[in-house]
Every structure is written in structure tokens, then in C-alpha cells.
Specification:
about 475 residues, alpha+beta, Beta-Lactamase, Helix Hairpins, Heat Shock Protein 90, 3 domains, 6-stranded antiparallel beta sheet, 5-stranded mixed beta sheet, 9 helices, membrane
Amino acid sequence: MRFRSISTRIFLCYLLAICLSTLVAGVSFYSLVRRYIEREAGLALAREAGAFAQSLASGSRRGHWPLRGIPSPMIFIFGGRPIESHYVVTDRDGSVISASSPEDFPIGSRWDQVWPEGSMAGQPADRPVTRYGRDFVAGVAAIPGSPDSPGMVIVYTRRSVLQTLNMVFWKYLIQGFGIGALVAAGFTVYLTSRIVHPLSVLRDKVRELGRLNFDVGLDLGRNDEIGELAMAFDDMARRLSEHDQAMRRFLHNTSHELKTPLMSIRGYAEGIRDGVFEGDEVGLALDVITAECQRLQAQVDELLYLGRLESPSERYELEPLVLRKVAEGVLAALKGWLETEGLTVDLDIPPDLTVLADKDKLECLLRNLLSNAIRHATNRILVSAKDDAAEGFTEIEVKDDGPGFSPEDLPNVFMPFYRGRGGEAGLGLAIVKAIAEGHRGWAVAENAAGGGAIVRIGLPKNPGAVSTVNVQPGR
């Protein structure tokens, strides 16, 4: 594995987490075990002290002290192991009168001065108690009997002895944690491979996508975030494939549309050069060349405008506009064409209906919608608009009474230069769609129930609105 690879980083992170958790758990467990051992040892020593005190009391009643014959040091069993302990016997004043280890508690000394932590001051003397100190853990018991009898028995052991027992537990703990760490490391390797393998597959698919191979289905069979990433990748690949196909069609259609006027210009220019045209024919040929150049210029301008509209950097100067007033202005500019075609346009737009839009682009949108309808209408065109409060959009609809869209043309009519059933091609509806989407709106095309074509546009009431309509390509 490479050190900078994600698999290495995941493995090292898991390993670090295991080490830290093991260290924290080990230190905590060590402290708890140490306290537990000392507490249990203290209780055992207290029981030993109580039994020793009872033995001394019984001996004193028989007229002798049973100190002889007591092993020094004494051994008691704790945790299944023999533990070395010592005893101290004091009188009622706390002076040591007998000790199994005089170097710890000299005869004649006060035991609470030698070991201040073991003092019984203020403590009840009717039951054994436990005392803990820096060097010793002890059990203390008062000797029952007459007032002339000695006072207390202390049975103690050194902390270093208990530390040895604690180290035994610590050794077992380290062994257990070592086995657990090995198991966790194995699980970490498995988990890392489970995480990294789909990413490796995704990397290979991305490389395929970079080679324009869009048939790269990525079904990982997972329902987690990586599965969601795979679905997003598949969706991206599908969209890129659709975009690639659309661009290929666009280039084919565009080249065809530009080729036609260029071929005409070339033919007439060669005819003039070769003397094919004479007299007035030369003027007519030049007129054709001029007209084709103007047509070509218009197509190039529309292409440039469409490219600008589809650019993310294109600015939209939004302002409240009275829709009916804007529509009437566009109709006035198209009045001559409408009269020539013998068409009537009905406006069904409330006079107070306003939209938030860029004025120039809204006029361009309406002009292209009406131009498209004029080319296909038979007698009448209806332009209507209404507010959709539930969706937060203003819906504009242009309906003509022409033949409508053919089923095969309907999905493609918003494509630039798409040539449909009628044989006409252009950029009008492509520009309409780009302007609508630039306003964060939508554009759809469909056939009317009674015949004719309908193009509907949705413009948001506010810039933050998001389209909730499934946009279908239209005419």
C-alpha cells in the first residue's frame, strides 16, 4: 500500500484508534485492579488481625500470650497466591510490645508515629478495620479482654508484595489486549478493503468515462453513502452520454444549416468568376450572395447569443415587468408578418400580472415563441398567462391551431437546428428554453387536445424558486 493512499490512511487511523483505546483501557484497568487488590488484601488482613486478636485474648485468659510459634513472616492465601504478611502487637497506649519485623516497627515505639496513616484515633475499636498507606496495607483489630490486656493487633503486608500480584494481572491484561489488537487489526484490514475496493472500481470507471466510454454502469450493490455515490456516478454518466449525443446532433445540424448558404454563395461566386452570369444576371447573383450572407450572419449571431445564454457567467437584470405590456410590444413588432400570414392573435393575460425577469430576454423569449407559432398556425394564435401560487411560478402559454408536433419530433424540438417533420430548422425554441432556464424556470412543449401545438414557459415569482416541473423537450 502506498503511504499516501486512502487505504493506508484508513488502516493507520484505525490502528491508532486501537492503540489509543488499548492504552486508555489498560491504564484504567491497571488502576482499577490495583485498587481492587489493595482493598481485598486489606479486608483479608483485617480478618487475619481479628482472628489473631481473638487468639491472643483466649491465651491471655489462660495466663499466657500465644506469640511463640507464630511464623514470621506469616503467609496467607490471596488471589490463589501466597502473600507474605507481618504482625504488630501494641498495648493500650499504642506502644509496640511485639513485632514480627522489628525493623519496620521497633519494640517500644508508637506504631502510629512510625506509620501515621494507620492511626486508629477516633475510630471504633470493636471490629477489625483496614488501613492503607504509602508503604503498607494493614488490618487492625482490638484485642478483647480486661483493661490490663494489650490493645491492638496489626497484620500488614508491603505494597511491593501486592504490586507483584498486580503485575501478574497486568501481564494477563497485556496478553488479552495483544490478542484483541491482532483481531482488530485483521478486522481493520478487511474493513479497509471493503471501503477502498468500491473506490478503486469507481476510479477505473472514471478513467473509462474520460475515454468517452459512457457505457460504464457502476452497480456496487450497496445501500450506504458509497452506493449513493455510485448512483450519482451512473446518473452523471447518463447525462454526459445524453449531452454527447446532443452535441453530436447539434454539430451535424449546425454544419448542415451553415453549409446550405455557403454552398449557394460559392456557386454564385464561381458563376460570376467564370462568366456564367452576364448583364443583369450578375446583379441578381450578387443579390443572392448578399441575402445568403445576411442569412448566414443571422444564424451565427443566434448561435453566439445561444452560447452566451447557456454560459454560467451570463447576467440577468431582473426587474418587475407587466407581462401584458411586454407582450403587446412584441406583437406590435410582428404586426406586419401576422397580417401577411392572415393570422389573429388573442391575448389572455391579466393587465396587472407582473413577472420578475430581464426585459430584453423576456422580449426575445416572446418573440421567438410567437415566431414559431406564426410559422405553423393556420388561423389563430392564443397567448395566455396565469400565476401558479402553489408552485411559485408565472406560466406563459402560446397555442397555435396548426398541425401540432409529431410524436418523433416532440422530444427534440428544443434542440438547436433540429429539423422536424416540416423540414424547417432553427434556434428559436432552443433560445426560448435557454432564457427560461436562465431565469431558473422551465419550458415544455406538447400537443393540444383539439389539435395544434402548445409551448408553456414557467418563470419563478422570486429568484430563489426551483422548478418542480419535469421538463420535456418541446418543439
